[in-house]
Amino acid sequence: MAEFKGGCLCGAVRYASTAEPAFMANCHCDDCRKSSAAGHMSLIGLPKDQVEFSGAMSEYQVTADSGASISHHFCPSCWSQVYTASSSTPVNAHIVAATLDDLSAFSPQAVVFASKAAPWDRPFEGVPHFDKMPPIG
Ligand SMILES: [Zn+2]
Ligand SMILES: [Zn+2]
Fold first, then answer.
1. What is the CATH number of the domain that holds 64?
2. What is the pLDDT of residue 130?
3. Which residues of the chain have pLDDT under 50?
4. Which ligand is nearest to the CA of 56?
5. DSSP-derived secondary structure for 48-105
6. What per-residue confidence (pLDDT) applies to 135?
7. Considering the domain boundaries, does residue 122 fall inside one?
């Protein structure tokens, strides 16, 4: 069984889950790029009620192009982004794979918003690329 365990930079926020991921993808959308302050976010869609979170988080909400409300959840001490959630799929928490203890637990199955990728952060090869968000997670 896969195990997803990790936390923020300072360790105040931790999470763990053994749930089956709904998806694992790299996302190059504007929200992921700006909120992570990196080229893209690698996200693991897990059923939120099967993820054990510890530590308080701060939340920032933004409306996506699709009209969905996206919430970004950060550690209020070190400001690592731990997960995002979307009003279009409220059952899932999108865990930020960069916060995993074991980075090999994540392997991207798709690249979304590939058309938005920065010239210096090329989309991961060998998996399907989508110009927008496909109907996943
Ligand atoms: Zn922290
Ligand atoms: Zn995104």
1. 2.170.150.70
2. 95
3. 137
4. 1
5. GGG-EEES--EEEEEE-TTS-EEEEEE-TTT--EEEEEETTSTTEEEEEGGGBSSGGG
6. 63
7. no
Residue range(s) defining the domain that contains residue 32: 9-15+22-116
Ligand nearest to the CA of 15: 1
Ligand number, closest to the Cα atom of 78: 1
Which ligand is closest to the CA of 133, given by its number? 2
41 C-alpha to ligand 2 centroid (Å):
7
Q: How far is the CA of 74 from the centre of ligand 2 (A)?
A: 16
Percent of the chain residues past pLDDT 70, beyond the cut: 97
pLDDT at residue number 134 = 72
pLDDT of residue 132: 82
Please state the domain count of the chain.
Answer: 1
Say if CB 95 and CB 82 are below 8 A apart.
yes
Average pLDDT of every residue of the chain:
94
**Ligand 2 center to 40 CA (angstroms):** 7
Span from the CA of 95 to the centroid of ligand 1 (angstroms): 15
Of 137, 119, 112, whose CA–CA distance to 46 is shortest?
137
